[in-house]
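FIELD: query
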Amino acid sequence: MHMKSVLAASTAVMLAAPAMAEPTAEVLHWWTSGSEAQSIAVLQEQFKAEGGTWTDMPVAGGGGDAAMTALRARVLAGNAPTAVQLKGPAIQEWYEETGLADIASVAEANNWAEVLPERIADHMKCEGQWCAAPVNVHRVNWIWGNKQILDEHGIAMPTTWEEFNAAAEKLQAAGVTPLAHGGQNWQDATIFETVVLGLGGPEFYQKALVDLDPEALTSDTMVQVFDQMRTIRGFVDDNFSGRDWNLATAMVMNGEAAFQIMGDWAKGEFLAAGQEPGVDFVCAPTPGEGFLYNVDSFAFFELDGEEKQQGQELLAKLIMGPEFQKTFNLNKGSIPARNDVPLDEFDDCAKQSAEAMASGSEDGSLLPSYAHGMALRGAPAGAITDVVTQHFNSDMSSEDAVQQLADAVANAM
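FIELD: result
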């Protein structure tokens, strides 16, 4: 055969053979602060290293509220992203509304059921089938302190709310802002749920903010919770309204405030700024027992196109890979969702968190955060937060707040 004929035949074969699809992913998320951006960059790099094409779609603001608004617009327009940061009951809500992709083949091939705490795994399933992948577990009920300020005033990290109040009063008398806080409703709700857990205990928290038990919602304990919220309001500076959470964290870093009550994503900000736990800042669980978790995860919409489906499978595999779980969480301040990732490189705050998650899995004190979308569907969660924020920003009595809380929950059911 002449060389010209050989080349023609080879070209014909090449044209006839289907091109190999490259994994592609358009990823919608709300990780835009310094530590968050570093963390999502880890996943981007790994995805690209596996031959994938990543299109980033970050939506800042509102603890994810703005991202959910953007997602709804995309889905209604028939243009759903490949993957979206979703969590808690919102995963099942979207499954019921639009359907989500089945990623059971990836989950089963990589033994997810064996390496995830059962309560965490349940969030990742839709009617018993895997439809989302967890990237981490955040502990919400943390209090962070500026070590220099606390040492200067002889203050230890509080173990009871009485100790917290006494420390805050001492700091305030010395001209120090006791608590850095951002006046956004989800931040108010974050403090509120830690007080519910601390004053009522894990069983009360489960009844009040997961089961929405009317007796718990109208109890004397709940009155005490609102009493403590009123006290805490007095420890916040006058300029808190509308402040983002990471700017409140910066106040602690910069010595403008002594404490912040915030999930361990705050630790990611400290670390990103080059600060060291035990040297520049200190951590402790908020007063009381139990572990409130907030799990970041990605869900996958049902999409046509082999390259998009391959992108979803690759993303799911990478997200739950031990190496990504380690590197991501070292940046983010959280701990791996997998229980088999070595913690040698993690700091003491993370090791405390992992131990508490393990024990909470055993004794039932591992509890979903209502404030961060893990415990409740949208309507009742929003109703609770509205009352909490209204109380925090007014002179409403604790008794009136409790009654409004019970009424709001009943109306949202």
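FIELD: remark
The radius of gyration is 23 Å.
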